[in-house]
Amino acid sequence: MKKSTIWFLTIIMALTFMGLLYVQIMYMRNMVRMRDDQFAEGVKRSLYAVTTRLEQDETKHFLEEDMASIETRYLPHYSADGQLLGTLTSSFTTSEGLTGDITINDPRRGAMSKYQSNQEVLRGLYLYQKGLLNEVILNIISQSSNRPIDERADSAAVASYMRSEFDNNGLDLPFEFAVVNRMGVPIYKTAGYTPGDAGRNSMFVQTLFPNDPKNKMNYIKVYFPTKDNYIFSSIKFMIP
């Protein structure tokens, strides 16, 4: 075989190898990008679920307070032997605008039968309160932002919710997070939280309680120190 032919074949083989290597590298880059996008989507979905659970907790908090107020205002009190204690007087207004008064006296006799009729009255009041649910929700939105954020989003609850949601989305790796105000000042944070370690495009941010006024907005910031290892572990079999 001529020397020129050998060189020609060598060059062709080298170019072919370089072309295959380029294709393989581009394929790996696309795989990394795809895994990174999947990771980011899982984190965003998890953080959204966390904020939803916090909003549900806050709604439950206000509803429990509201129900406690209703019980205090409308629920009669009885002694150990079943007798009504004192006189209960309450006023109410129906959704049609009709007003009325309810007075429950203490005759010291037939207390249990009175209790049953009073239960019917309370059932009617409950249905009326249920009809005002939309108004209650508006009150929750208007009053909730006045509570301290560390009460609305307890650090232990937030960490627990995040761990649960990350696991549900297949993100079983350590994370560091902080809750910050609109100026970026941490309200509380994990011991290992160092924003500089997050790296470029690796810090995920989620708004807490998006219905709050803009001047009272707070955010969750979270990053994963071992994210790169997690991403490349799924494609390392291609390196050889």
- Main β-sheet description: 4 strands, antiparallel
Low-pLDDT windows of residues: 106-112
Question: How many domains?
Answer: 2
> Which strand order do you get reading across the main beta sheet?
4-3-6-5
Strand content: 5-15%
Order of helices and strands: HEEHHHHEEEEH
Please report the distance between the alpha carbons of the first and last residues: 33 Å
Helix content: 40-55%
- Rg over CA atoms: 32 Å
Task: Explain how this protein is built.
With 240 residues, this protein is an alpha+beta fold. It has two domains: 79 residues, no CATH class; 92 residues, no CATH class. It is built from six helices and six strands; from the N terminus they run H-E-E-H-H-H-H-E-E-E-E-H. The strands form two sheets. It has a four-stranded antiparallel beta sheet with strand order 4-3-6-5, with helices on one face. Helix 1 packs across helix 3 and helix 1 crosses helix 5. The protein is elongated. The protein starts with a helix and ends in a 7-residue tail after the last helix.
Task: Summarize this entry quickly.
The chain is α+β, with helices and mostly antiparallel strands and 240 residues long. It contains 6 helices and 6 strands. It folds into 2 domains: 66-144, no CATH class; 149-240, no CATH class.
